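Q: What would this chain look like folded?
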Amino acid sequence: MNTSRKASSRWGAGLLAALSATVMLASSGALAQSKSVKLVSDPYPPYVMDEPNSKGFVTEMAIKILKDAGYQAEYVNVPYKRALAGLDEGAYDGLLAVSPGREGYTYPENGFGTLQTAFFVMKSSAWEYKGKESLSAVTLGVIDGYEFSGGETGGFKLDDYVKANKANSKLVQPNFGTDALERNMKKLADGRISAMVEDSSVFWYTAKKMGMTDKFKAAGTLNAPEKLAVGFNLKNPRAKELAKVISDGVQKLKDSGEYKKILDKYGLK
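A: My prediction, written as structure tokens:
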């Protein structure tokens, strides 16, 4: 009887220890997962880059902020539409270098800077953006999945125009993939499209990198400057928490002078 009781007692203790270990592992795994943050975007220089020594100043700042706050942060480079799908499914946490306005997202109060969307053409072109009617004279290159805020004068919204004409290659030509920006610029230079729409800083930064600044000119802006931020899908239970961490962190970077140091690294002010 005594042996049986001892054996039973040892088995019970062993089971308890095993269960405790399992619970601890599960808890530590859940904790690690709750502190892990995946930031996603296609390359969008100088904001988001995928080069050995340059990740883009928004990526660099966001990762520093999150790590300083105790999170394990990483950047994932995927095509924009795939990034949106992954955010919707919970595979990623934050969408880098966007302006507020996408439905179902929340954004930090403090931004990293500003974005301004503009139209670009070859230097020899006489075309200039003057609202919806002017778009019928060009073949417009866009990146698939991008949303364009602004252009709403008189009820017109560029997003609606792009969606309505995506199947008409004479009016709109979407490009896909992580090199969609560069391919759109090459198409513009080759005459396969006659205009493209893009953030001004991104366009000129990429044109300089490609040695093509002398080929293009701006042809009007779509909107006033907007906040440059990280977007968090509200399906993510941590969305508001992470937005606040980023917002507070941006202010800390500015107060400490680290914000300016990172901008200087990219030749920006």
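Residues 1-31 have pLDDT under 50 and may be disordered.
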